[in-house]
């Protein structure tokens, strides 16, 4: 499933970001391959959102390199990220309640037919996209206001796919959803992987992470605190990395003993 | 009736269905999964009726309050004075609604953003004065002066929009300041004379005047307009249906198209007969209707219109979609100012003069009331420009009816205030039930 050998489609090398006196990110490394779901986990304030925003171009990085297909690129504006093929679905979905599903999917990049909005083609393509993703929406012509939270989430994710991105960033897509809706969104994440997209999934829910992610990257206090393959890692190990429980009296003593023994 | 609906089932596809289309079409898209709880409209006329009842319950009143209101108002005035539904009086209504209607068109744009423009009345008065000063005091050509007056309105509107979008002053306050300020500028321009009479033998003032008719009162003129409207709606709907069929997306059944076009045909030709019985279709009305068609096209079929709706529906969503929100806001206020200025020219055409009272009194309230009564929400994102036409029919009927009954201005103001309040209450209540029905 994970193509470790290939060049990562997106790689962060030693990325740092400061806000005034706060060092939000320090020397962060992250790799996303095509067809790989990377879960980005960490406690509140660990720097997950900041990291995602540097990739999305909201906050330009201070130090380090962002590589796209192995070549260094500079992402200074959201426009740069979109141009490369990074699509971000933020936690507040930012959909227009009064527009219908088609209108929202194509908002800001409407298809034109002789200078006029081409509703027919847009509707056709929207239906195709939604059906290839097996998204269950009552109708593509009802306003977003009529949809449930889970349906809005999948519409927001589908919207990110309209521009044919290579990397999709999902910021806590299941945070406010019920059981069935969460399952739908997780199914959708797997379908993104099947389409050979790189997915960065931010989540606090370990069950979700274990269910769909290939790799888990843990951030703690703005630094990498381990990157695990989901298959070979237990729930507890990830939690320990998130909370920093590995760094306590017991582990320090154990560490000291092993170095002493080495001497 | 049941036969018709059965026939429809074989070739017609319902709008809100996710699955596609004629069973014999091999290229039909794969059958999508439909939520079983979803309400799907039944075929045929029964389907329309249940759909209609569901929409009313859900607070999607559409033009229902207007139609009901119009029937009630016309009945009351007709009982009070049997001249009310005479051809001449209806012709008066159709002429006088154009001026305030122009203000209302501009306000629809602003209301779609969820904002308000309180300055349109003053801007319309100022525009007519600017026009009169250019023409009478400076001897400028009327058409050039007209363009300058409209540009004045656009610039003033853009200025309001700039203060709102860039500085962050609430639109309510900016335009309230404009309401007072531009009225003051108008009074200053008019000076001591108070009134400037504009020659009305030719040019725009003659065109906007009460004695200027489409095709010089030729009987065929009204029918031509009605026929044009019906034919273009029929052709447009059928072409849309064909494109949708070809693309494999749901389309309107032919019966539905025929019902809609039929309804328009009845209304349009009835209006044509009535206006021909009076003196014909006034050019002011023709320009008003043409503006409605153009603006409707802009709002529904262009990316600019989509941006206006998007900003009205969710600023953050619009911004993330790459829409330049401040530019949309400024342009919308500029459009509002421009239409206010055009409306001002219509007012000048009514009296062939620029006066102290131009755009004053309850003009602003009537324009806002018309847009809201017609179904454009004060809360933004919902509405269409035809509400300016429907709302103006109601408002102008009340105005003309009260004039016919020789009601005092005091009574007129009270009734207008009541009607505006009623319209806003309907808007708020329907919004609340829309929320309850999950469509807010």
Describe the protein.
The complex is a heterodimer of chains A (263) and B (440). Chain A contains 9 helices and 12 strands. Chain A is α/β, with parallel strands linked by helices. Chain A folds into 2 domains: 10-85 and 165-262, 3-Layer(aba) Sandwich (Rossmann fold), CATH 3.40.50.300; 97-163, no CATH class. Chain A has a 6-stranded mixed sheet, sandwiched between helices. Residues 1-37 of chain B have low confidence and may be disordered. Chain B is globular and about 65 Å long. Chain B has 17 helices and 2 strands. The relative contact order of chain B is 0.18. With 440 residues, chain B is mainly alpha-helical. Chain B has a domain at 217-281. Chain B has helices at residues 2-11, 44-57, 64-80, 87-112, 120-137, 142-167, 171-190, 203-208, 219-247, 254-277, 283-301, 303-313, 315-320, 325-351, 363-373, 386-404, 409-436, and strands at 195-197, 353-355. Chain B starts with a helix and ends with a helix. Classes of the chains: A alpha/beta (263), B mainly alpha (440). At the A-B interface, strand 8 and helix 4 of A face helix 9, helix 12 and helix 13 of B.
In the sheet with the most strands of chain B, the strands line up as 1-2
Biggest sheet overview of chain A: 6 strands, mixed
Low-confidence segments of chain A, given as residue ranges, are: none
Count the strands of chain B?
Answer: 2
Strand content of chain A: 25-35%
- Low-pLDDT segments, ≥5 res of chain B: 1-37
Can you tell me the CATH architecture of the largest domain in chain A?
3-Layer(aba) Sandwich
Taking the alpha carbons of the first and last residues of chain B, their distance comes to 35 Å
Along the chain, the helix and strand elements of chain A come as: EEEHEEHEHEEHHEHEHEEHH
Q: Identify the CATH homologous superfamily of the largest domain in chain A.
A: P-loop containing nucleotide triphosphate hydrolases
Overall pLDDT of chain A, averaged?
A: 85
Tell me the number of structural domains of chain A.
2
Computed structural class of chain B: mainly alpha
Principal-axis shape of chain A equals globular
Instruction: Give the helices and strands of chain B as they follow along the chain.
Output: HHHHHHHEHHHHHHHEHHH
Tally of separate helices of chain B: 17
**Rg of chain A, nearest Å:** 20 Å
Share of helix among residues of chain B?
Answer: over 70%
């Amino acid at each position: 499933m994970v193509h470790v050998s290939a060049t990562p489609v997106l790689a962060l090398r030693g990325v740092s970001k400061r806000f005034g006196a706060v060092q939000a990110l320090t020397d962060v490394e992250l790799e996303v391959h095509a067809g790989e779901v990377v879960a980005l986990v960490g406690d509140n304030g660990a720097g997950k959102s900041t990291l995602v925003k540097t990739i999305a171009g909201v906050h330009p990085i201070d130090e380090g390199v962002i590589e796209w297909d192995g070549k260094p690129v500079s992402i200074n504006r959201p426009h740069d990220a979109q141009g490369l093929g990074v699509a971000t679905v933020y936690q507040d979905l930012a959909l227009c309640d009064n527009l219908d599903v088609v209108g929202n999917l194509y908002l800001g990049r409407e298809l034109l037919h002789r200078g006029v909005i081409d509703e027919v083609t847009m509707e056709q393509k929207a239906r195709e996209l939604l059906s290839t993703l097996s998204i269950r929406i009552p109708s593509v012509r009802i306003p977003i206001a009529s949809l449930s939270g889970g349906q809005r989430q999948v519409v927001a994710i589908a919207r990110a796919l309209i521009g044919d991105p290579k990397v999709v960033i999902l910021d806590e897509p299941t945070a406010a959803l019920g059981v069935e809706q969460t399952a739908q969104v997780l199914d959708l994440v797997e379908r993104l992987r099947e389409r050979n997209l790189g997915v960065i999934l931010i989540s606090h829910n370990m069950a979700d992470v274990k269910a769909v992610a290939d790799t888990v990257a843990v951030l703690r206090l703005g630094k990498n605190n381990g990157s695990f393959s989901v298959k070979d890692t237990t729930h507890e190990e990830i939690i320990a990395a998130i909370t920093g429980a590995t760094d306590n009296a017991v582990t320090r003593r154990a560490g000291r003993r092993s170095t002493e023994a080495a001497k | 009736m049941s036969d018709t609906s059965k026939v429809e089932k074989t070739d017609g596809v319902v709008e809100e269905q996710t699955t596609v289309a004629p069973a014999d079409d091999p290229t039909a898209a794969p059958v999508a999964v439909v939520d079983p709880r979803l309400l799907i409209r039944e075929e045929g006329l029964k389907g329309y009726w249940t759909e209609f009842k569901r929409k009313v319950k859900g607070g999607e009143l559409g033009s229902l309050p207007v139609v009901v209101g119009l029937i009630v108002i016309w009945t009351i005035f007709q009982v009070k004075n049997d001249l009310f539904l005479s051809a001449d009086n209806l012709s008066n209504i159709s002429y006088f609604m154009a001026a305030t209607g122009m203000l209302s068109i501009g306000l629809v744009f602003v209301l779609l953003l969820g904002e308000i423009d309180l300055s349109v009345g003053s801007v319309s008065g100022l525009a007519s004065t600017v026009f009169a000063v250019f023409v009478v005091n400076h001897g400028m050509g009327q058409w050039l002066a007209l363009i300058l007056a409209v540009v004045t309105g656009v610039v003033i509107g853009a200025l309001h929009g700039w203060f709102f979008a860039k500085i962050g002053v609430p639109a309510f306050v900016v335009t309230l300041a404009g309401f007072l300020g531009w009225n003051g500028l108008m009074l200053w321009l008019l000076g001591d004379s108070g009134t400037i009479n504009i020659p009305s033998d030719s040019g725009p003032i003659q065109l906007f005047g009460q004695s200027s008719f489409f095709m010089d009162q030729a009987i065929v003129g009204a029918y031509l307009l009605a026929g044009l409207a019906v034919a273009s709606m029929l052709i447009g709907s059928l072409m849309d249906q064909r494109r949708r069929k070809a693309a494999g997306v749901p389309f309107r059944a032919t019966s539905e198209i025929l019902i809609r076009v039929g309804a328009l045909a009845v209304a349009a030709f009835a209006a044509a007969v009535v206006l021909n019985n009076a003196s014909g279709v006034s050019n002011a009305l023709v320009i008003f209707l043409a503006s409605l068609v153009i603006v409707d096209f802009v709002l529904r079929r262009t990316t600019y219109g989509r941006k206006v709706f998007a900003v009205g529906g969710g600023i953050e969503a619009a911004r993330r979609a790459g829409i330049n929100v401040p530019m949309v806001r400024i342009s919308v206020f500029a459009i509002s100012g421009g239409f206010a200025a055009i409306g001002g020219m219509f007012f000048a055409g009514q009296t062939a003069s620029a006066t102290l009272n131009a755009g004053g009194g309850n003009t602003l309230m009537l324009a806002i009331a018309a847009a809201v009564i017609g179904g454009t929400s004060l809360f933004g994102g919902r509405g269409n420009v035809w509400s300016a036409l429907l709302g103006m029919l109601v408002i102008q009927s009340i105005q003309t009816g009260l004039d016919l009954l020789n009601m005092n201005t005091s009574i007129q103001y009270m009734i207008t205030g009541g009607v505006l309040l009623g319209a806003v209450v309907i808007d708020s209540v329907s919004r609340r039930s829309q929320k309850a029905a999950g469509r807010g």
